[in-house]
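Record type: monomer structure entry
Structure origin: computed from sequence
Chain ID: A
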Amino acid sequence: MTVNNAVAKRISKLLAEKGMTQYRLEQESGIQHGSMQCIMNGRNKTVTLSTVIMLARGFNMSLTEFLDDEIFLSDDLETEQ
């Protein structure tokens, strides 16, 4: 699984947990709809740290809280180079 896929899965999980829509996350985080669609559909090959910080803020959580999930601990997590 790529980092982008892991971020997309984390977003989906948090949206469900918080009863939040993707549109609301876009508004709260400042991430444009097209960019969010690229992340969620796997068309984005790399997610920047800045984007992850914006996502965390959109969920009203710290970066550490956003990344505190088993999905990011997998030994199979592929980093794009």
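Annotation 1: The CA atoms of residues 28 and 60 lie 9 Å apart.
Annotation 2: The radius of gyration is 12 Å.
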